[in-house]
């Protein structure tokens, strides 16, 4: 079978060679029929022959130009350096190719490619018109350039995610995250997301790939190369990337917007609180003032009566209880009055760092027996402020004791960090504890008078409202930042020029 198959092929080959040998089918005919230009030059680069396509393409005629030197046919060929190239083809026998031929005015604005090789002693050239291909390439290049410009100049980060990796990202994405191109390309995108948001983002990504309907815009946090947390708003769609499903994501950096919103919300809450406290304060101060006198009289009479010889021990004991409770009540009225700012601060130039040191010193024994570790980050050379030394001490002591109680309650020991710094004309004092934290719903109420989560009768719930009154009387702010289970930070800011 195989032999039989081979046989006719041999015959075919022989007959095709024969066919080629006939002049009308030989290489000359091939050149004549070609759409490419075929040219022959002798060893001095004088034109020997050119095919009809060459005459048409190059406007060179065999009749008029045969025997002319290439330098006559293409006058500036020496200047372009090509003359030498063709001579070197003759000399070395090495062919020369170029498809970047700068169109000569003589050839119109055509774009040509040239292949030159040694033939006998001279040079044979095949010249093709690649104008159309070049135009298409240029159009493609321009179109790609346009897309590139749009993508690269977008204010949004544009990212393609596939198989958990970033398959494409524009310059803005690099700008936001701060990683190099190589680092970005080698990272799982989950690595860039803030740990608290990873589950949510990956969940949405998977759900989106499964074709589930999801809100297309949401926000999450990333951690940039420097470790800063940035908020991004993402708008994502599923599409096909290199033949497989991927997500196309547009990301806007909304960190500043979020900060401004949070600040605005904080200010609004402060204003609300200020209004509420002012109203409560006024009422409380009125009541406290009215109660002060009767309480003083009860205290005075119970104190002197409990010493009377005509009373039995039970009566004396009862009077002692009346005296102590009246004392406690008058302490509350006193606190209420100080909360309502009835005590104007006696301001002097004071050093906040010094007040903190003194407060800690006063309380150091208690802190150490309760296993509270205190660390300090007090900014050296902090500017002095105009403030009431004792009131400031009262504020700091209150915050420290609250933190101590909260930490002890939660885990019988604790870590408290105290930090002072200057920010925008203020001295900022932060107390951060590793206690239980504060419920979000309570966070808005802790500065309210009488708000307490402690046992009834143990604490009055006036501590923070007094701190609030004092700090505000100094032109400052006081607030708490906390999440349940993550400790609490109490911040007071006092203006440097107050
Ligand atoms: P009191 O200490 O009498 O309860 P405060 O006004 O000082 O009153 O505090 C109000 C409430 O704020 C406390 O009962 C407690 O629930 C909460 N609180 C204050 N400081 C902290 C803290 N560091 N950690 C957790 N909760 C706190």
Question: What's the CATH class label of the largest domain?
Answer: Alpha Beta
Head-to-tail CA distance between termini: 110 Å
Determine the strand fraction and express it as a percent band.
Answer: 15-25%
So, CATH architecture of the largest domain? 2-Layer Sandwich
Give, in spatial order, the strands making up the sheet with the most strands. Answer: 2-1-5-4-3
In short:
The protein has helices at residues 2-21, 27-33, 52-58, 62-65, 70-73, 82-92, 131-153, 171-177, 181-186, 195-209, 255-305, 313-339, 352-369, 389-411, 440-443, 463-473, and strands at 37-41, 47-50, 96-101, 112-119, 122-129, 157-162, 165-169, 217-223, 229-241, 244-253, 348-350, 372-378, 385-387, 414-423, 426-433, 477-482, 488-495. It is an alpha+beta fold and 498 residues long.
Set out the fold topology.
Elements: H1 2-21, H2 27-33, E1 37-41, E2 47-50, H3 52-58, H4 62-65, H5 70-73, H6 82-92, E3 96-101, E4 112-119, E5 122-129, H7 131-153, E6 157-162, E7 165-169, H8 171-177, H9 181-186, H10 195-209, E8 217-223, E9 229-241, E10 244-253, H11 255-305, H12 313-339, E11 348-350, H13 352-369, E12 372-378, E13 385-387, H14 389-411, E14 414-423, E15 426-433, H15 440-443, H16 463-473, E16 477-482, E17 488-495
Parallel strand pairs: 12-14
Antiparallel strand pairs: 1-2, 1-5, 3-4, 4-5, 6-7, 6-10, 8-9, 9-10, 11-13, 14-15, 15-17, 16-17
Helix pairs in contact: 11-12, 12-16, 13-14, 14-16
């Amino acid at each position: 079978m195989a032999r039989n198959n081979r046989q006719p092929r041999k015959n075919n080959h022989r007959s095709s060679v024969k066919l080629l040998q006939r002049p009308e089918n030989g290489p000359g005919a091939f050149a004549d029929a070609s759409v490419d230009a075929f040219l022959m030059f002798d060893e001095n680069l004088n034109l020997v022959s050119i095919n009809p396509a060459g005459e048409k393409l190059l406007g060179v005629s065999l009749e008029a130009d045969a025997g002319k030197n290439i330098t006559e046919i293409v006058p500036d060929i020496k200047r372009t350096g090509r003359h030498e190239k063709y001579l070197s083809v003759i000399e070395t026998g090495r062919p020369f190719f170029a498809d970047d031929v700068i169109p000569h005015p003589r050839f119109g604005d055509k774009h040509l490619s040239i292949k030159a090789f040694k033939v006998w002693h001279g040079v044979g050239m095949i010249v093709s018109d690649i104008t159309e291909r070049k135009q298409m390439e240029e159009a493609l290049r321009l179109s790609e350039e346009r897309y590139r410009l749009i993508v690269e100049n977008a204010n949004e980060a544009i990212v393609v995610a596939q198989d958990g990796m970033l398959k494409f990202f524009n310059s803005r994405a690099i700008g936001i995250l701060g990683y190099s191109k190589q680092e970005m390309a080698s990272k799982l995108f989950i690595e860039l997301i803030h740990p608290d948001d990873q589950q949510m983002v990956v969940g949405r990504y998977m759900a989106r790939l499964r074709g589930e309907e999801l809100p297309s815009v949401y926000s999450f946090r990333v951690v940039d190369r420097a470790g800063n947390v940035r908020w991004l708003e993402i708008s994502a769609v599923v599409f096909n990337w290199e033949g497989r499903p991927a997500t196309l994501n547009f990301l806007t950096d909304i960190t500043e917007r979020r900060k401004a919103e949070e600040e605005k919300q904080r200010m609004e809450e402060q204003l609300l609180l200020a209004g509420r406290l002012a109203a409560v304060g006024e009422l409380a101060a009125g009541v406290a003032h009215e109660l002060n006198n009767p309480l003083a009289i009860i205290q005075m009479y119970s104190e002197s009566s409990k010493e009377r010889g005509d009373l039995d021990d039970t009566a004396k004991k009862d009077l002692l209880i009346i005296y102590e409770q009246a004392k406690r009540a008058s302490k509350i009225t006193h606190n209420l009055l100080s909360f309502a700012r009835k005590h104007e601060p006696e301001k002097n130039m004071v050093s906040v760092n010094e007040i903190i040191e003194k407060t800690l010193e006063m309380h150091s024994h208690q802190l150490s027996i309760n296993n509270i570790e205190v660390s300090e980050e007090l900014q050296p050379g902090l500017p002095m402020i105009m403030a009431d030394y004792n009131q400031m001490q009262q504020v700091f002591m209150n915050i420290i004791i609250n933190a101590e109680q909260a930490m002890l309650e939660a885990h019988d020991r604790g870590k408290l960090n105290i930090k002072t710094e200057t920010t925008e004309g203020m001295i900022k004092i932060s107390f951060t504890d590793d206690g239980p934290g504060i419920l979000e719903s309570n966070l808005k109420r802790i500065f309210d008078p009488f708000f307490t989560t402690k046992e009834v009768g143990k604490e009055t719930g006036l501590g923070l409202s007094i701190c609030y009154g004092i700090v505000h009387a100094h032109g400052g702010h006081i607030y708490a930042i906390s999440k349940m289970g993550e400790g609490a930070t109490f911040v007071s800011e006092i203006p440097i020029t107050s």
